[in-house]
Amino acid sequence: MSGPRKWLPSSLIFFLTATAFSTVLVYSIPAEDPFVPALPEIPPPRSNQDSLYRNTMQTRQKYPDQSQNGAMDTGRPAASEEMRTSEKETPPNTAVVKNADSGTEVEPGRPNIKKQTTKPRTQSQDTEKKPFTRQGINTEKNRAAEPEQEQNPQPSFLNREKEHKSFDSDKEKIANMIAKDVLDEAKNPLKGKDDSRTEKVSGESKEQRDVDHLLRGIDPVMPRNYKYTAPVYYKGIYINNYTARTSSRYLPLLKKAKATGINTLVVDVQPRVPPKEFIQEAKSQGFYLVSRVVVFEGGLKTYPAPEAHLDGVRKRAEESAQAGFMEIQLDYIRFADNLHIKGLTLNQRYRVIAGVLRSFELKLRPYGVRIGADIFGRIPFNNNDIIGQKMEVFARYMDTLYPMLYPSHFYGDPFYQKNPYRTIYDGKTRAIKRAGTTRVIAYIQGFTMLVGKSGLSYKSYIKKQIKAAEDSGGAGFIVWNPKNDYGVFFQALKETN
Fold it and tell me: Structural domains in the chain?
């Protein structure tokens, strides 16, 4: 019994010592400033082997139903939830498709399992791409019942040099075309928009026509008459609610911003609309004022959307318009990233989001303000996304779109994390191409997260993003720093100008 008696006191002493040490460590960490918001929400990582943001759309187009049967044996990880939402929305056992070769009826999305035959292949068959197989299941028959998709080569880290050369050759031509559109708009600014806008957008792409069909009955509010003149090119900074309500913080900040050529302020109006002194001071210095309104913090987690909550958010947006803000920027209009509700299809998610956007139109259009929305940085690269954000859906209702193209947030794609210029340029050009007549202003990174991956200094990192925002055209950029620490950014902007 001597052994246990010696062991018990020593273990108890060790436990008490460890507990005391951890308690001191936890309480020694300073609490965060409750008035300073955290960094923008970071989506969970989805892939660490290849470029999610450029491959997801092509993968879904080529193999839209494979996610039901697990990942194909191609060296890729299993399909993410984002890919699985692109499955066909026909419920099981409600429709059948006749197989093109055998004449048998099979359910959509389920491979037709058939024994291999010794039928000789023709020359035309030999030239076709060999289908992927998994555990002896031939998926060629299943794809025969689907419309043929364009076979685009998959981007890979192995052909970066070739892709880079192609980018350099096309960059200037694309930038010139977009710049011409910006100059045309500057010479002939839009005073308002009427019903002809919907017809024009509808004829621009098959994708937009499909969206118009999907959203039938949820029509945009027309016409759009603007009370304020927006900048031709936004150069803006984000201001949190605490700064906007504290004169000792916002007065020196506005002075520095004005001196460096900033013309736009995106200001939080939650939990309270900033005082009239701030609004008057900002307007007297010639700033274009945009109020930022968070709709679903962290994303919508219920279906349908809680109407009482929406009423409160719409009221706050209306209050900011009444207070003198010239544009309302809606943030977090999306579903939660990992939300799964039985029966809630991807198309239904689009319609829910569209209905929310239109409800803000009905509330805010009478005030003559522009309405914009923030979207995830991956959305310009994705054709469909589980969070319910789609470029063509937002472009239907919004005057401005703000893709959040922070390079640090491109998980699963180290190329974009290391190349801030390409992140902003590629994301913005894709967004512009899909936005139709809706203006695109990119959010760029003004915080130090993962800057070291680029091998650049923090200032050079910001300068690369500013240059990319200018080269890609569109309507400008907004810099995000949650604590409003813009000293390095102001230096970078001066040197860029």
Answer: 52-114+132-144 (no CATH), 170-496 (3.20.20.80)
